[in-house]
Amino acid sequence: MPRNTEPESEPEAESEDDLPEPFNARLVRVVRTSSSESFVIWQDDTRLGQVDIHYGWDIIHATLILEKDLTEDEQAGLVELIDEDAVASHLPRFSREDFLVTVFRAEEMEPFSDGPDPEELEADEDY
After folding, report:
1. Which of 24, 68, 74, 125 is most open to solvent, judged by the fewest CB atoms within 10 Å of its CB?
2. Considering only CA atoms, which of 96, 108, 23, 103 is closest in space to residue 63?
3. What is the DSSP string of 43-59?
4. Predicted model pTM
């Protein structure tokens, strides 16, 4: 039986071609603490969802909540955008163990707050 004499190839490193297409959206920070951030995600005038990011020592966990349907490629592009625009500034890829993103599809029902009523705030501004 003939033997295969071709050398075994090593796994290829991730190239620029392997990265998802850039996703056209912007992140608007809602809140930031020493170990977490929350962003609303906008595409033009459409709210796509929200991402909550929690920073550990060497791992970063994000919960991505989408309000619109996105293809798998669009989701990958959005995760790449979140990584580049928010996460990498906190902990670059070479310094972290993992960036774990859990994606949900949801619909906002109603916000709850124990702060002042927005209508009262508007009334206070009318002198």
Report:
1. 125
2. 103
3. ETTEEEEEEEEEE-SSE
4. 0.72
d(C-alpha 87, C-alpha 93), whole Å: 9
Q: What are the sequence ranges of the domains in the chain?
A: 19-108
Look at the chain and count its residues. 127
pLDDT digits (tens, 9 = 90+) for 35-61: 999 999 999 999 999 999 999 887 899
Cα 107 to Cα 19, 44, 66, 110, distances in angstroms: 29, 19, 8, 9
Of 76, 63, 56, 69, whose CA–CA distance to 107 is shortest?
69
CB 102 within 8 A of CB 82: no
Top CATH class of 19-108 equals alpha beta
